[in-house]
């Protein structure tokens, strides 16, 4: 635990930042008073006094989509198969890998991933949690044992948690029976209702924790099951994979006569509670409808590139007023700036232009995308409006102004330089719910968590 964290555990603490991206714009010499995990006062053009002195501050981003356990298989599916590779061949590798994982391994892997998320600028994670059962497909003594372990990892690392238990019942459209590789995911409606209730019990004492639900995808849930489980969300978020792969679109057309996003919009009240993960293969009409719905598009550019998914029509979606958040999904590489960079670069490559996603002439690409991901990510994870303002969660990062990529920069140019020219080291401190969890770019529990992770991986891969 850092000295700054120790100094602020009792009562309020005050930090002074050279500058800060507040909800209403950049300000200089900003004093933030933190108490109860929230920002209780903001003073600008203020002397530092005896406050903790920090560099420029940005709101931390919400990681809208993570499968924690996949962090441990990063890099293990990069050898070409005999007949080529795609998402579906990668999925078979993933199914084989998860057969080795028990609760202890999942907790250790989740903690390692969350450390990297915090160090990389994410202050909250949406855990799209579908690894529920033991390797035989049977229930643990506590049917929510794996969710317990995800929450325990978040408690140790200090990351904000939105727990999204996943309903998964079928292998494909039409209620196809699950495959053997999916046996650890499967619930019926009643069992899933019990799981959701247990998840709420698990996080009941965790400050700022949120529980939503995640019907896995239209191929894994029937229309009747979707109708039955949606009330379980209450006012919480609803996340769903949709239209990630062209095969999924083709299968949905064959089964229903409609494309996935169109079917969902026609049959379900998609609104601000919803986050549609990927939505990669949507046409112009679906892009417009999704933007108007108020839902968030949960984009995972690094994973989508790694899996060969395709490119979301981000330019057209943002032009239509759509909200978006960013996620690390398979956790092949965990860094907030990398997701922002990959989002923009995909558009540059497909459109053969630069600064495609900037909000207008003379607008900062990095700045506009950071703001958009902050607002959309907070909405998607049920964490309010996001941003640095009075009453908001004290979730923020500060930058090292002496980092070679950041020297002499200010305002949105700092964000542009972090995103497009910086590497690890640009982020100095990270604060989650008013607690300093990263100092000098390093999480306070990194050494202990990394040691456990190394031991776990050596055993798994032996």
Tell me what you see in this structure.
With 462 residues, the protein is an alpha/beta fold. It has two domains: 3-59 and 388-447, Urease, subunit C, domain 1; 61-380, Metal-dependent hydrolases (TIM Barrel, Alpha-Beta Barrel). Helices cover 36% and strands 20% of the residues. It contains 15 helices and 18 strands. The chain has helices at residues 3-8, 87-98, 103-119, 145-157, 189-202, 223-229, 246-256, 260-267, 284-293, 301-306, 314-319, 336-351, 365-380, 412-420, 446-461; strands at residues 13-22, 25-35, 38-43, 52-54, 57-59, 61-66, 122-129, 160-167, 210-211, 214-215, 238-242, 274-278, 296-299, 323-326, 396-399, 427-432, 435-439, 442-443. Strands 5-15-16-17-18 form a five-stranded antiparallel β-sheet. Strands 6, 7, 8, 9 and 10 form a five-stranded parallel β-sheet that branches. The protein has a four-stranded mixed β-sheet with strand order 3-2-1-4. Strand 12 (274-278), helix 9 (284-293) and strand 13 form a beta-alpha-beta unit. The protein is globular.
Helices and strands in order:
Blueprint: H1 3-8, E1 13-22, E2 25-35, E3 38-43, E4 52-54, E5 57-59, E6 61-66, H2 87-98, H3 103-119, E7 122-129, H4 145-157, E8 160-167, H5 189-202, E9 210-211, E10 214-215, H6 223-229, E11 238-242, H7 246-256, H8 260-267, E12 274-278, H9 284-293, E13 296-299, H10 301-306, H11 314-319, E14 323-326, H12 336-351, H13 365-380, E15 396-399, H14 412-420, E16 427-432, E17 435-439, E18 442-443, H15 446-461
Parallel strand pairs: 1-4, 6-7, 7-8, 8-9, 8-10, 11-12, 12-13, 13-14
Antiparallel strand pairs: 1-2, 2-3, 5-15, 15-16, 16-17, 17-18
